[in-house]
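Why should sequence recovery work at all? Because a backbone constrains its sequence more than one might expect. Tight turns favour small or flexible residues, buried strands favour hydrophobic ones, and helices have their own preferences. The token representation captures these environments compactly. In the example below, the structure is given first.
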């Protein structure tokens, strides 16, 4: 990774004040009460929906306003590649087996989530003005405002791009098909108003949750032909021919014929063409922070709740433990601490946002399963994690993916499914995950070591998952 230099003014002070927290973060202790950092830093999290890690190249404003001023994490992942479970983890710093939110439906969703202790309640108690703008959790459709949020503008379950409803501080508001009703633009406008309306002396936390690029993926007005001609996506694992080493649910997918290939190609183009509106929103947020004098003392985080496959392994959705579904974009800008652009290849997960925000704010918070990544920004990498748990529960309304647990390091991925199927990949030599090494004698010792860590971490196991020796 690049060597980070604290900025000459506030950055040096913040670096010194945060140094005491490094040890606590490394051993997963709860952050302590507010330190002497004054004024407390603002936090803005911008969260897209179903955006793959390899799509940042389509977002020049994000690269210019965030990437050139902060750190791009090249190994950022989610532990459960499904919308609602991932968002529950982001808000709490806990795995699905601790939140109890495994899916978007009967085994998850808004109704399953315990909202009494989240990053919002912790930061509000620490004196922050908190606001949520956009998607909350699957299944949310009511006047209800969860605890911890001073400003609440949450789109309902059907909220995509047009013809949706939202709850605005307890009042349901309907939106139609006028260009001004476009979902990304509305969420952006609400966010900018929140930034401008928050008193200068009060720190703010904005959770900005966008509909794009999730299907139905409707581009913004004027963006129907954005990005020019987009060539079809044909990576080495696309429409994989030799599937005999894959688990049964993958092998059951027929080789994709022309109609299916065109369907996925068109969906990909639509999804990519929703990103320019997100790109502009990010630029507008940065402008608002600058104009209100907040930019230098604000951590801005850009990421997604999960990725999606575009025909790799004959798959056109998410849920699966493949890189395209679990890897997400992640850029962090924090001018008070970071100077210039850098890249970091440590394993960062969606578990880590809540601990990081609590640590940065000096907020009291319960113990979490994630880690604060502030030490990484300070160059403290020696004790960072070398692997994380993946978990998934078979869903009533899902894609037929069986329950599984997996363990992911920088180089290797081991996954074990209910029913006995398993996968093992060496990402260094096989980044497209075409050669399953699960039954390879040459990898037996490695597999046993990874399996030991998998079994220890996957407690309790998702319902329906039974692992033998």
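From this structural description, the recovered sequence reads:
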């Amino acid at each position: 990774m690049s060597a980070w230099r604290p900025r000459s003014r506030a950055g040096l002070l913040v670096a010194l004040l945060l140094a005491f927290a490094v040890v606590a973060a490394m051993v997963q202790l709860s952050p302590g009460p507010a330190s002497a950092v004054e004024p407390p830093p603002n936090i803005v999290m911008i969260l897209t929906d179903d955006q793959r890690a390899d799509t940042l190249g389509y977002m020049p404003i994000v690269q210019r306003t965030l990437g050139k001023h902060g750190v791009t994490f090249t190994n950022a992942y989610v532990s459960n590649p499904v919308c609602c479970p991932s968002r529950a983890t982001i808000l709490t710093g806990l795995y699905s087996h601790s939140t109890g939110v495994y899916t978007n439906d009967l085994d998850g969703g808004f109704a399953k989530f315990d909202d009494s202790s989240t990053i919002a309640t912790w930061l509000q108690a620490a004196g922050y003005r908190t606001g949520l703008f956009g998607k909350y959790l699957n299944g949310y459709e009511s006047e209800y405002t969860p605890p911890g949020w001073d400003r609440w503008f949450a789109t309902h379950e059907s909220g995509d791009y047009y013809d949706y409803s939202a709850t605005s501080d307890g009042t349901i508001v309907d939106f139609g098909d006028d260009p001004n009703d476009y979902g990304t633009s509305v969420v952006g406008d609400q966010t900018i108003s929140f930034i401008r309306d928050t008193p200068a002396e009060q720190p703010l936390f904005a959770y900005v949750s966008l509909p794009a690029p999730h299907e139905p993926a409707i581009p913004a007005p004027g963006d129907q032909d954005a990005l020019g001609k987009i060539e079809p996506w044909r990576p080495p694992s696309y429409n994989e021919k030799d599937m005999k080493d894959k688990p049964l649910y993958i092998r059951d997918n027929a080789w994709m014929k022309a109609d299916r290939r065109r369907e996925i190609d068109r969906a990909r183009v639509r999804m990519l063409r929703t990103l320019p509106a997100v790109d502009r929103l990010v630029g507008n947020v940065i402008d608002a922070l600058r104009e209100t004098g907040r930019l230098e003392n604000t951590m801005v985080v850009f990421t997604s709740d999960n990725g999606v496959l575009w025909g790799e392994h004959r798959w056109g959705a998410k849920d699966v433990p493949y890189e395209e579904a679990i890897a997400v974009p992640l850029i962090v800008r924090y001018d008070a601490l970071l100077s210039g652009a850098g890249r970091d290849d440590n394993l960062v997960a969606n578990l880590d946002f809540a601990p990081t925000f609590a640590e940065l704010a000096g907020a009291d918070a319960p113990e979490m399963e994630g880690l604060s990544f502030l030490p990484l920004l300070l160059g403290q990498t020696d004790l960072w994690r070398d692997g994380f748990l993946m978990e998934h529960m078979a869903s009533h309304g899902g894609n037929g993916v069986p329950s599984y647990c997996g363990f992911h390091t920088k180089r290797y991925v081991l996954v074990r499914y209910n029913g006995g199927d398993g996968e093992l990949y060496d990402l260094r030599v096989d980044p497209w995950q075409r050669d399953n090494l699960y039954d390879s004698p040459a990898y037996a010792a490695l597999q046993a070591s990874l399996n030991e860590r998998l079994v220890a971490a996957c407690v309790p196991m998702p319902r329906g998952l039974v692992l033998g020796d």
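A few observations help interpret the result. The chain has two domains: 10-385, 391-457.
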